[in-house]
Structures are given as C-alpha cells and as structure tokens.
Design brief:
3 copies of one chain form a homotrimer. Chain A has about 375 residues and is α+β, with helices and mostly antiparallel strands. The first copy, chain A, contains 5 helices and 19 strands. Chains in contact: A-B, A-C, B-C.
Chain lengths: ~375, ~375, ~375
C-alpha cells in the first residue's frame, strides 16, 4: 500500500519556477509521488508530461521547448503538449504508441498543481484557497524546503503545535503555555473537503520574537491559531495576537495568513512549499525580509528535529509510537489518509495510472494571471 | 545470529566526552550494537538512556539536560535518570508506558561503560583493568578512531602482530623478525575471564622508530609484547624492549602499557578507543606528544589496510579466508566469540533485551573520580 | 544471467598506466566484471592477478612489487607472477592452496587486455585491430572516462549516430541531416568476428566545428562514418569528410581513425577507453590538443545524457523501451550479446571461472613494445 492518495492536486512548483521558453537543458522538472514530471509553458497555458522519453528513457527535461512542443535531447523525438510524439528522425509518421503520459495541470494563486490520479476525476473545486499567495491585501515571500523524510512526519508536525514551545522556543514560540493549551479539533464537513480544522488559543503569553517585529507589544498577549489541514497535506492558517484582556493601553494587533503544502517526492523525501503573509501596508520591505528570514529559520528548526526523528525511526523498524492526548489531530489525519488510500485500492474504485496511455484523456491547463508581480 | 555478545561492558566514551550540564543540542550520544544511547551526568553519577523518545521517536540528544532529568526537544516530554517520563505537556501524569530503556552505566579509569545485555547480570567484576588510563605512574593520551568495518576484522588485527612487520614497517615495526616469531597463546583461566593471553618476543631486532624517541638504543634490542585480549574486544598490553643480551654498555629500557577496546557501532562500523602509556617522568611533554602522534599514525596504517580489506570482502561474499599458523590466536578468539553468542541465543539462557521496559531493573552508576586531570 | 560475455579480451588499462617497479601502495588495480585485478610489469612481460589475498582478503594492490613477485601489505605473503604463494611469515613452505587467480594478460597497441573467461580459450586472434593507438602514421591522445551506468547503454549510444544531431549539436554534429540518414548495417562475417559493421553517409551538410579545426571547408561537405562494433563493446571507426560533390574549388579532406572500448566495472559502472586519431603531419601540437579537447567535450555530452537516462531508468524498473527504426543496429547488437551470454551459460559449454585454482592453466603475457613514446 502506498503512503499517499493519488486523486489529489499536488503542488509541483511556485509559478515563478516555470519560465517561458526555457533555453536548452533548463526545462523545469520535479519528481512527484516517485514520478518525474516536466512542466513548461505553452501558448495555451501549461503542459505537464512524464519526464521520460518513451523511446529509450532519457529525461525530456534534458531537451528543449520548441514553441508548444518539447524535443528530447537524445535522439530528437518531438512531443506535443498532450504527450503525443509528432516527429522522430527519419520517420514519416511516428507510431501511435510513441507518447508520454500527460498530467492535468493548473496554476492557481502562484502555485502550480498537478493531478496525480485518474485524469477523468480531476476536479478544480478541490483546489485549496491559498488566496494570500496572490492578493494585493497580503504581503508574501515564497518559500521552499526539501526534506529527506516521509511527508507524513511533516504532517504530524503541522498538526500538533505543542512543539512550538520546544522546537521554536527562540523564534515562533517563546512560552510553554502553548504546549499546555488544548486545541479544539473538528472534522471539515463541507462536501469535497477532506481534512481537519484546528483551533488553539492561549490567554496570556509573552509576545514571541516574530510578533515583536510587527508590533512592539508592551505586555503579555492573547494568541490564537486557526487552521484547516486538508488532503494531500496542505495547511491554510489564520493566526495572530493582541494585548491580553486587561491591557487597556496597547491597541496593537498582529494578523497573519499562511499557506503551506507538502508534496511527496518519493516515499522518503518531500517538497515543502510555504509562505506566511502579513497585511500589506504593515511595515516596510525590511520588515517583510526579516519576517521571512525568521520563518525560514523556524522551518529549519523543524527540519532539523524531523530529519533527526526520521533517522532515528529508520534505525528502529519495530518502533511503535506512543499516542498521547496531544496527538489527537495528527492521529485523526493519519486515519483519514489511511482510509482514502485504502479506498483508492479497493477493487471497486480502481485508480487509473497508465504508464503509457495511447492518448491522455484530457488536459486541464488553466493559467491564472498573477495579480501582482 | 548477531556478530556480538550482549552481556558485556562496552566502552561508549572517554570520561571527558561526557560533560556536566550540556547546553541544548549538545547532549552526548553514541550508537552501540545498533542502539543509539544518550549519556549525561547527574548529581548521583551517570545516566544512560535509549536515545529515542518513546512518544514519536525523536532523538533525546536533540533535547537538553534539566538537573537530573532529560527533556525531549520535540514536544517536551521530561524523563528521569532511570528513563521514566515524569512530565508531558498538558497531562497531569504521563502513562506508565511512557518511558525509555535505561542501561547500566559505569565510569572506570576514564572509560565510560554501558552494559548491553540483561541488566540483572551486569557485573562490575567484569570491568577490564585499564589502570594506565588513570594513574599517576603512567602518562597517557586518549585516542579514538571510527571504522566503517565489522569490529571482528580489527580484533583479528590485534590478535596477530605479524602485521607489525609489514603494515607498520616505518612506525611500530621495523623488522620482519617480528612476523617470523611464534607467539605463545594461552586461554585465560581465572573465573569470569573470557579471552586469550598472547606473548611474543624477538631476541635481536633493530629498535623501532617509536622506541628511539624514548631511548636512543645503540644496538639491536630484545623486544616483547604480553597482552590479554578479552571479550567483547579489549586489549590490555604490557610491552617493551631492552638492549639485546650481549650488549653490556647500554642499560636503557622501554616499558609501555596500552589499553585498547572495540565497540561495535553497527554490524558494519566500530568505535575504537585506545591509548598507549609510558612511565611518568620519562621524557617531557614533547616526547608524550610525539609518542601519541606516532601511535595515531600507526593506527591510521591499520585503518587503511583493514578498511581496504573490508571493502574487498564486501565485493566477494563467497570468499573463504585461508587459515595459516599465524592465525591461531585470532581463530581461537573468533571461536570463543561464536560460542558465547550461541550461548546467549540458546533457548535455556534467554537474554532480556526489552525495547521498552516499564521500569529498568536496576541502574548501576558508579562514578570513579579521576585521579588526575 | 549476467549482462556480459566472459570469453573476451577486455581492456583494463592504457599501457602508460602500468608503470615499472611501482613504489609501495601504488600497484595498479582496476575492477573488471566485478573482479578487482592487480596488474604489474615483470621481467617477462605482465602479470594480472586477483586483487584479493587468499589469506584474509586484503587487496594485494596495497602491497608492493618485489622483482617479479607481489607481496601482500598486510601479513607479507609473497606471490609469484602466476599467483602461487611462494613465502609466508614463519612458514617453511606455504600450502599449495595458498594462491590467487591469475588472468591471461596481453599488451597490444597500448591497450592492456585481460581475458575474463576460461584461460584455455584465450585467443590472441580475437584482439581488436586498434592500430592507430600505436602507429607513426596517426596522432592520438589517450582518453578515459568512468561511467556510473550499465555499459550496454553506452553501446546503444555508439550504435546509433542519430544522436550526433542533438547531443553533439555544437561539437561533432551540427546538422539534423545526420539523424535523418539511414545507416547500412551488416553482420561481420569473418570467422571469429562477433559484431556489426555500420556505415552512414550524408551528401551535403555543414562542416562540424571539429572538422573546421583540421581544414577550413568553404562550403558544405560530404561526411561518412564506417565502423565495426564488436564484442565485448569495441568501436573501430574510420570517418571523414570532403567537399560536397559540386564543389570544384576546395580539395581538402578530413580522415580520422577512432578506437573506443567499454569494459564493465560492475553491472552498474563502466570503464571507457577511447582515442580519435588524425593523420600525422596534419596540423601541429595545438591542433592535436584542441582536437582532443573537443572530443572530451563531446564525450562529456554523451556521459551527461546517458547518466541522466540511467537514473531515469533506475526509477522505473518496469519501463519498456520503444524500438524505432533508428535502433536497428543497437537491437542487433543486444541480441548478439544475449545469444553469446546464453551460450556461455548453457549446460554444454560451461565456462570455467574458478575462484581459487590450484594453478592457473596458462598465462599469456605478450608485451608489445610501443613504437613511439
């Protein structure tokens, strides 16, 4: 049984990573669920193809884009945006079997998504509402980390914020009160939503270093985190702080919106796309840069402990985790994941994952024009 | 069948490697027999715990010592010196199942030992007599090497000094006479001792470069080596040289004491702790430094050939070694090892290696105060 | 079933790599078909022995040559040029079982060959005619590349020059006409020859950058390639170009001879020995250096795409290559290879590959004196 769901949109790149008309040898490629995928821009939007020439297996990303087509850099086979081979050296017409798999691909608020399951089930309504990645109201900086760990360990991390008190003591956390607080956990009930809503608040804690950069709170603050965590591994969070109840002088407030998503590269490695926005017009470029640097530093703290955890687990294949009350959200998400994976592998609902379809069923390629540079 | 005996004291560190009150992220950890172990100093002596939090598997060595306790750096679980979890965020009392394995641990003449088998059988009388590591009469420098090889290949090396003539031609050896000499090999017969005694002598050989640093011999010398090699892989050796019989002028003498021990890290890697002492008051600090440098150079010669041997063997899984007369001691030791390993895995004598005991049976933590800085 | 034929001469080194009387630790060693082999010069020619001491498996290449003998650097066993142990420390006479495998070895036109199959079948008439490696008429520079790929992927590359148009656009190729041309492919029919003859020509193409260094063609040229590709993976090629038919002014001509051979190191790595000669007296030392640099640059282009292909294939064990007409030669060669491998493993024709023969059957050691320095 795999460790991931297939019928999902997975982020493969930030919009700015897919450039127009890349020169030879610079075609964008990234591996998702163990499958290398090449993505390039066409006149109609985007094309996402298996990054492996059907002829002798060379990566197409070693070739070059020619108009809307992609040419293999080994023997020169030319593929159209749907993966059909339209020219091969010395042949009048390439055989129909000469084609590579194409993936539904969509660009939405500066994230580029590929659909990894049955193309016929690709559903645009399942795209997450990552609005702050692309809005005049929010200031964001795109972030990316590569992990050499199973993506589920990072899901675990994002579903239990008690680690803020220990892992992020000097960055995002700053108080053991956060770990003590009991989060409110609910299942998302809207149709098509698959995930959890988690809410945590603490009444009186010191303002963490990251908040002080936005507003110099003079006393303790009330803090809150409110997020959805949805399949395949996406966090959409509003969070913030304001002066604690009996502080009548300080009127400041901090409000943040964060979009984070995990894309398994392989069973043992993960792409992590993230950003945390603050309101536009709050502070200047220096603040924005320092907020992003703080976030990256905090996410490196996560990566350090999670990578160490992964190495530790790799040495002890029989180790059983010990569930405690603080693991409620992550346990529920792991159960949801297991159910969805099992459902995709039940005899009734077979997911089509053809390795060389004669022709892709359909290709979605919506290109959302970015609102802002 | 494993390649090691469990009911033994294994050296995990030199005393100076385990510091008091280590800052965050600097808690000492080393892997022994495939098990990562964290060691820290407490008010009562030492604590050695499994370096894997029972909660979600993060290494405890990423956390910090708080008084006599150790706190996990991921979600903040707090463990006492016997491995019981005494606090977890947001819980009045952690469940009894929340605990990590603890190991009997002992500090003896600047070596820190852990007992890897059944704690009830931990036996202080089995500690080796590594006196020169901690004595006013001897000058020593602590040495450590990491090998990417099975520890038994290094045992082999230490049990056959004929390699001195070839591997250490320019350092410890200096003459093919050493390889020609037939060593005297006896089984250690005292109760509780498990190993061999090996004695080798050569009547007339040039003084090796290492000896000449202590005493400038004017002619050939008589050399001798007299050592015990005991389980799990510890060499305790007196050795030396003096002018050959008919030299009536030179009255010099060299006397050395060496303590060396091998601790398997995994089946394919080894920790090697070593020192070779000369008599205090003999020479100055410069001599001591140059003697140690010579020893390290010689042990690098061993590491070079043994690592090459290990790589060669890894390429030829069917290779059978060809026993020659010079292999008598190492053959006997390998047989002893095989017998002891088999005994630990016979149905009658089951060794307890619980991965998560409710409570450790007992913890030995004797702290020998070093005589000298 | 292995991926290679055993009863073949494999190039293990360029002549200049095997020096006389190497100092300690510098004895030449290279792995062929997974077997590390030590090669050294003796008074009678060459000796090629298994690079693994029969005593405890240390590599003999860590030892030293003493006259015509090779001494192990671990315990000092001494082997003669046929692999028999003639001395061991403290023994009057080593046992007859103390010996290492020896390989038929031959030096021919600056290539040093070892025979990897049954020594009784070693056949000098099977040596390839790599004359331009060692001739006053040709100027050559020896080349070597190490690949971390199955050697058959490189055979494929050399058997289909349509890749010149794409991989070598800026070096050896320069025109898509090359890929369009249909090569003439014939089986080599002389007795003892096992391989293919491939001829490709293009009537009118621009002169490639590499040719322009030899002769500044003023218009388009006629180009041709004529090569034998024989077991185990050797290319012997004449190639060249001259002004296209209707060019009556330019009388220039380029003629090249190239010798290239692939020796599997393991199933997943390969030694690649190559050179491309031009006629002596054509151009100067600067031309020679620039021709060689261009060749190395082109071969790095091959290595780049083939290594990427190998990684791509490693990720997709079920991938099936799609044969196109341009693959005819490489398909035929792969079939020949499969037939020869199967024949060597049929019950009737068992190939002897003793791991420790009592005495090698015979050793061929022909030392061709180089004609030129």
């Amino acid at each position: 049984m795999p460790t991931w769901v297939r019928n999902c949109w997975y982020v493969i790149a930030w919009s700015h990573e897919i450039t127009y008309a890349p020169p030879k040898g610079q075609v964008f490629s990234r591996t998702v669920l163990g499958e290398p995928i090449v993505v390039y821009r066409t006149s109609a939007g985007l094309s996402a193809l298996a990054d492996r020439c059907c002829h002798r297996g060379a990566p197409l990303s070693k070739g070059r884009v020619e108009g809307d087509h992609l040419r293999c850099g080994y023997h020169g086979l030319l593929f159209d945006q749907r993966g059909a081979c339209v020219a091969a050296p010395g042949m009048a017409a390439p055989p129909r079997a000469a084609c590579v798999k194409s993936y539904p691909v969509v660009e939405h608020n500066r994230w580029v998504f590929v659909w990894m399951g049955d193309p016929a089930q690709a559903d645009l309504t399942q795209l997450p509402n990552n609005y702050s990645c692309c809005s005049v109201d929010w200031h964001y900086e795109p972030g990316y980390l590569h992990y050499d760990t199973d993506y589920r360990l990072i899901c675990d991390n994002l579903l239990d914020f008690s680690h803020l008190s220990y892992v992020h003591e000097a960055t995002l956390g700053g108080s053991t009160e956060i770990a003590q607080a009991k989060p409110e956990i609910t299942n998302l009930s809207q149709p098509g939503q698959r995930g959890l809503r988690v809410r945590r608040e603490v009444a009186r804690v010191p303002s963490p270093p990251s908040y002080q950069r936005i507003h110099r709170f003079e006393g303790e603050i009330y803090r809150w985190w409110d997020y959805d965590f949805v399949l395949p591994g996406t966090l959409l969070m509003r969070s913030g702080g304001r002066p604690a109840a009996n502080n009548t002088v300080d009127r400041g407030e901090v409000e943040l919106h964060s979009c984070q998503t995990l894309t398994p590269e392989t069973e043992h490695s993960t792409h992590y796309f993230f950003q945390q926005s603050h309101r536009s017009g709050m502070g200047d470029a220096e603040l924005a840069a320092s907020m992003h640097a703080m976030l990256v530093r905090a996410f490196d703290e996560d990566k350090d402990i999670i990578s160490a955890q992964a190495q530790s687990l790799a040495m002890a294949p029989d180790f059983q985790m010990l569930p405690l009350h603080l693991d409620r959200a992550l346990q529920q998400f792991r159960q949801l994941l297991a159910r969805e994976i099992a459902a995709e592998h039940s005899p009734a609902v077979e997911v089509l994952t053809p390795t060389r379809p004669v022709h892709p069923v359909r290709t979605i390629a919506v290109h959302t024009e970015p609102l802002l540079k």
